[in-house]
């Protein structure tokens, strides 16, 4: 059988192939699989059109900041001990909760001062602090008020942070059928935390320091929310996330001093410098070359691959798409699987965009929550 240019390794599951060496299984190329690839390619094209690359002067600034930050991070010892970059956030007491409705359900809109700031002296700090809407942490909450419950934190992907997230995570099922309380944090520079339209500010971004700051603040904000959940006497707490949210879920699991009852990254990114390089056209890769090494060093302090979760191996699970053209299963998902000691994983024969309609993925999520006890009581 001739090799398929989209799946050069999938048609040869031998251990010597790229996928075989990473432990990523063979995926049969079917009409359905090609449809997933087509959907991902459309999404990739749309992202490239909507997210214009920085101007030349911006590239020079990004390069200068990244290289300066890499030297500073080395001096501070954060490259050898990334945990030193992440102080424990203060507990979240009495956040503002406003009744509202979303996706046909009664919800609470949670607000709190994020209180995260880039460390003093770090390049890009002043710019980050000017994103005023981003200084307010936000989440949507579904709560049972009758008795203590299990809680599930669902972390959205890039470009989300809207009420549609409740349907994406099947929050109604988690809340009503499983009886869990559900929290959907809104990540930095998403939803109502976005800068004014036309500013060009976004996250994730090729701007190295903005991207690293966004990841650090995302983990901080979720951890503050976890502290509030734990003050509610929960029966247990689980965290899952999709894509960018999978990255944040894995990072939070690595930073938290208390074990989670479940940690479930779904199609997670784990290496943004490599991801940006892979998803960029040749001319853009050339412009990234002067700061690529520095970007890798800067991102290492916010990488989930640098932290060992205290959450038990049996409470960890991962899902990856074998036809994912946005988050490569070999370069992005498999390294986290290896780092976490190869916990239970679903390699589903689908892509990134199509994960929303995968019944096998829905079943895997349900079974993971049930097996870790999050649906009991």
What does this structure look like?
This protein is of the alpha/beta class and 377 residues long. The protein has one domain (18-371): Alpha/Beta hydrolase fold, catalytic domain (Rossmann fold, 3-Layer(aba) Sandwich), CATH 3.40.50. It is built from 13 helices and nine strands. The protein has helices at 18-22, 31-50, 56-76, 125-129, 164-168, 171-177, 208-230, 244-255, 272-279, 282-288, 292-300, 329-339, 359-371, and strands spanning 96-102, 105-113, 136-142, 150-155, 181-186, 236-242, 262-266, 317-321, 344-348. The strands form two sheets. A seven-stranded mixed β-sheet has the order 1-2-3-5-4-6-7, sandwiched between helices. It has a two-stranded parallel ribbon with strand order 8-9. A hairpin with a 2-residue loop joins strand 1 (96-102) and strand 2. Helix 3 (56-76) packs across helix 11 and helix 7 (208-230) packs across helix 8 (244-255). The termini are far apart. The model is unreliable at 1-6 and 8-13 (pLDDT under 50).
């Amino acid at each position: 059988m001739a090799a398929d240019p989209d799946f050069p390794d999938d048609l040869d599951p031998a251990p010597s192939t790229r996928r075989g060496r990473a432990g990523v299984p063979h995926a049969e190329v079917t009409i359905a699989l090609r449809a997933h690839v087509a959907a991902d390619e459309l999404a990739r094209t749309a992202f490239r059109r909507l997210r214009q690359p920085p101007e030349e002067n911006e590239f020079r600034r990004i390069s200068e900041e990244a290289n300066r930050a890499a030297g500073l991070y080395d001096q501070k010892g954060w490259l050898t001990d990334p945990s030193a970059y992440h102080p424990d956030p203060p507990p979240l007491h009495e956040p503002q909760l406003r009744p509202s409705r979303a996706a046909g359900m009664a919800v609470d809109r949670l607000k709190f001062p994020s209180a995260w700031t880039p460390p003093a002296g770090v390049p890009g700090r002043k710019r980050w602090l000017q994103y005023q809407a981003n200084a307010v942490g936000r989440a949507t909450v579904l709560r049972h008020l009758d008795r203590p419950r299990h809680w599930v934190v669902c972390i959205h992907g890039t470009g989300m942070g809207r009420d549609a997230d409740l349907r994406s995570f099947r929050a109604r099922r988690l809340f009503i059928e499983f009886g869990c309380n559900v929290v959907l944090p809104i990540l930095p520079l998403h939803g109502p935390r976005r800068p004014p339209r036309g500013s060009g500010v976004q996250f994730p971004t090729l701007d190295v320091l903005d991207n690293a700051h966004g990841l650090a603040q995302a983990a901080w904000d979720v951890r503050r929310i976890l502290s509030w959940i734990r003050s509610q006497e929960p029966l247990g707490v689980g965290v899952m996330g999709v894509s960018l949210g999978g990255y944040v879920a894995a990072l939070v699991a690595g930073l938290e001093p208390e074990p989670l009852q479940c940690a479930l990254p779904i199609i997670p990114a784990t290496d943004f410098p490599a991801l940006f390089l892979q998803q960029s056209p040749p001319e853009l890769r050339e412009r990234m070359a002067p700061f690529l090494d520095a970007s890798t060093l800067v991102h290492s302090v916010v990488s989930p691959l640098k932290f060992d979760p205290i959450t038990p191996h049996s409470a960890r699970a991962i899902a990856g798409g074998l036809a994912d053209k946005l988050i490569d299963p070999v370069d992005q998902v498999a390294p986290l699987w290896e780092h976490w000691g190869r916990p239970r994983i679903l390699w589903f024969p689908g892509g990134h965009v199509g994960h929303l309609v995968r019944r096998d993925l829905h079943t895997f999520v349900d079974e993971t929550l049930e097996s870790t006890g999050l649906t009991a009581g």
